[in-house]
Design goal:
Elements: H1 4-18, E1 46-49, E2 52-55, E3 73-77, E4 82-85, H2 91-104, E5 109-113, H3 119-122, E6 133-135, H4 137-158, E7 172-173, E8 177-181, E9 184-191, E10 198-203, E11 208-210, H5 228-239, E12 245-247, H6 258-279, H7 284-288, H8 302-323
Parallel strand pairs: 4-5, 5-6, 6-7, 11-12
Antiparallel strand pairs: 1-2, 2-3, 3-4, 8-9, 9-10, 10-11
Helix pairs in contact: 5-6, 6-8
The structure holds zinc ion.
Length: 330
Amino acid sequence: MKPVRRRAAALALLAAALCAPAIAQPPGGQPAPSAAASFDYGLRPRQVADGVHVLVGRSEDFSPANGGNIVNTGFIVGSSGVIVIDTGPSKRYGEQLRAAIARVTPLPVVLTLNTHHHPDHFLGNQAFPPETIAALPQTAAAIEAEGNAFNENMYRLAGDWMRDTEVVVPRRQITPGRRTVGGRDVEFVALGGHTAADLVLIDHASGTVFASDLVFNHRAPTTPHADIRRWMDALETLAALPARLWVPGHGEVSADASPLAATRDYLGWLQRSIDEAAAAGLDMAETLARPLPPRFAGFAVAEHEYRRSVVHLFPAAERAVLEAPPERRD
Ligand SMILES: [Zn+2]
């Protein structure tokens, strides 16, 4: 048993990690909300390839200042309809995304994807036709099971931006494969690791890959539902795709695969570092206090996400050491 004093210190640090305030970061791709009172996200779709538009969120944590706009969403305009990739963190965001799409094209939204069940990716669903909202089966089930808890938490983190936001569970199931949607040649790839089910969309005409939260760019990955080894395998699968443009779940769009390698590097280091700390007999407080390698120092919210990840991942690493056969303990 560890001394009670150390347990208390670990608990204090754990509480600090869970309650850490949003960390201010330099602005990301979107302009700051012009005035919080107007609840205008200032969404400006950027055309990154023919018919492919992306809205890059800020590289921050959720806060009342950003209204939860820390996520990338996008849409693809085909010859007969529009595919929407994720709906953002709130009803207001969804409505403003829908309006932004309408400024680009009069075509109807024919498919609205939720790439995974995290709140910033599906809480804008109310603004879209319910019959168009689709996800992998496990994602729909997770939204049904956990959506309300996520929604309540988002009200706490982002405040009035969330007003009237309610969970809409995707009705349509996505099956992996290549097909024509809205006149566009697209492919659905079912992967996992960031969550139990992470949906990737390939637009074959432009070579654009919407990589969901399997890829972060210059922003520390979040791991509350992560299976790190599966996630690293998924990144290997993605790296083999013939992509010309990568749209990560968070961070800037990239013309090369460097964000995949960086995400993989970070995750590998994170798991190794936590496993080594547990094997060396460190407790959670000591693990939380370890410095990040300089190569990750430039990632937005790195310290904050490291603390969250240790809180999520350390107990299992510690258990694995304690449950290992005695000969493997030293
Ligand atoms: Zn996520």
